Amino acid sequence: MTFLGLLERHPSHGYDLKRDYDVFFGRGKPLPFGQVYSTLSRLARDGKVVISEVEPGAGPDRKRYVITDLGATEVEQWLTQPVEPEPNLQSVLFSKVVLSLMLDRSAEDYLDLQRRAHLERMRELTAVKRAGGLVDLLLADHSLYHLEADLRWIEMTAARLDALKKAVRP
Amino acid sequence: MDRDDRSTARRPEKGGAAVTVALEARDVEYSFGSTPALRGASVAVEAGEILAIMGPSGSGKSTLLHCLAGILVPSAGQIHLGETRLDTMTETQRSVLRRQRFGFVFQFGQLVPELTAAENVALPLLLNGVRRAPAMREADGWFERLDLGGLQSRRSGELSGGQAQRVALARALVAKPEMLFADEPTGALDSLTGEHVMDLLVDAARGQGTTVILVTHEARVAAYADREAIVRDGRVTVLDRIPS
Ligand SMILES: Nc1ncnc2c1ncn2[C@@H]1O[C@H](COP(=O)(O)OP(=O)(O)OP(=O)(O)O)[C@@H](O)[C@H]1O
Ligand SMILES: [Mg+2]
């Protein structure tokens, strides 16, 4: 999904995609080229990208990938859905924020939506906790504290969107 | 819910059932000197509902709560309590209203230090003209309900933060108010004590049908509410349901 999102900005060569991926989403672990091209050919096979031109001297790096309507629709849907609230989401939340900014969408709207989804889940867990026994309570607490941590991250990120936007769209 | 039908206090809900709006702020503005704190804030709470007001520090949550509760008078906009306009009342009318129909809990209990815990709880009843013996009896009942048995004769300086906050909660609810206004009621408490206070607050409010407006920046506290409103830069965002 990250690749599709990156391609939604503009058509790119595999090499440029890898570079942008490593900068924003790699977290110190560069993506192997093999994985870049296998992902791209899977997307091509599924009709979400097409290869626009093969330049003379065609090695893998000569191909430019262009997102299709199908691919763009998928990106659109992904960015306008909150992630199912559950512990350990940070990388998905982060990707949605960064891609929203890259595609000049409202990351704020996305964060609002995600906040809402988190609070909704926390309400359900609080109800479980108030109705259930000690085991339910302790398990619900564990999830509640993790979701609360996500929410704090959502608040901090919302407060830093302007700075992040500058970093993402120089 | 149709948020634009503002002509009456009752309005149709999606399913067709009528929802009674207990209290509503419409386009409320308020400034402290030249500092605008509210810039067109609108929010409504339904009767019996628990609404959490969240938002960053300095966004205007407390100011909104104070306008809704008739403590501050907005410079523009309206406050509707059922069929009555709160913002056009005199100070005397508002203070009678607050005493008879509202209850308050703040971050620091704000008990009267010269009075015992039991007298603090009985205070709203005494101010509303209930005689001392029945008022003290009624207050006494709250000590058992809020796990405060035996603390009736302590003064506020002799109570822990959590105990003082439960005494403040009893005082806020003893006169069976229509509305309870709580501003960071667990702000000064540790997680476990805060949770205990919230459990009691929610049970007591639901038990007597009190509508609650709860200001908090803690998501775990807001999760006790039915719904949340977010205040940002003096305006309110009430997000609708998640698109599915
Ligand atoms: N008594 C006062 N005099 C002057 N300015 C005030 C006063 N009370 C609040 N303000 C200002 O009004 C704005 C809104 O304040 P308010 O207390 O409503 O915020 P809040 O959302 O409750 O914040 P917090 O989460 O920190 O309690 C802030 O800019 C604040 O500095
Ligand atoms: Mg405040």
Topology, pairings included?
The complex is a heterodimer of chains A (170) and B (244).
Chain A: H1 2-9, E1 12-13, H2 14-24, H3 33-45, E2 49-54, E3 63-67, H4 69-79, H5 90-102, H6 107-131, H7 134-159, H8 161-168
Antiparallel strand pairs in A: 1-3, 2-3
Chain B: E1 10-12, E2 18-32, E3 35-46, E4 50-54, H1 61-68, E5 76-81, E6 84-85, H2 91-101, E7 102-105, H3 117-127, H4 132-145, H5 161-173, E8 179-183, H6 191-208, E9 211-215, H7 219-222, E10 227-232, E11 235-237
Parallel strand pairs in B: 4-9, 4-10, 7-8, 8-9
Antiparallel strand pairs in B: 1-2, 2-3, 2-5, 5-6, 10-11
Helix pairs in contact in B: 3-4, 3-5, 5-6
Question: Please, could you describe this protein's structure?
Answer:
By secondary structure, chain A is mainly alpha-helical. Helix content of chain A is 68%, strand content 8%. Chain A has 2 domains: 1-79, Arc Repressor Mutant, subunit A, CATH 1.10.10; 82-170. Chain A has a 3-stranded antiparallel beta sheet with strand order 1-3-2. In chain A, strand 2 and strand 3 form a beta hairpin. In chain A, helix 2 packs across helix 3, helix 5 runs antiparallel to helix 6 (107-131) and helix 6 packs antiparallel against helix 7 (134-159). The longest helix of chain B is centred in the C-terminal third of the chain and has 18 residues, at 191-208. Chain B is globular and about 45 Å long. Chain B has a single domain, classed as 3-Layer(aba) Sandwich (Rossmann fold), CATH 3.40.50.300. Chain B has 244 residues and is an alpha/beta fold. In chain B, helix 3 crosses helix 4 (132-145), helix 3 (117-127) runs parallel beside helix 5 (161-173) and helix 5 (161-173) runs parallel beside helix 6. The A-B interface holds A 80-82, 112-113, 115-120, 122-123, 125-126, 130, 144-145, 147-148, 151, 155, 159 and B 56, 199, 202, 218-220, 222-226, 228, 230, 237, 239, 242-243. Bound molecules: adenosine-5'-triphosphate (ATP) and magnesium ion.
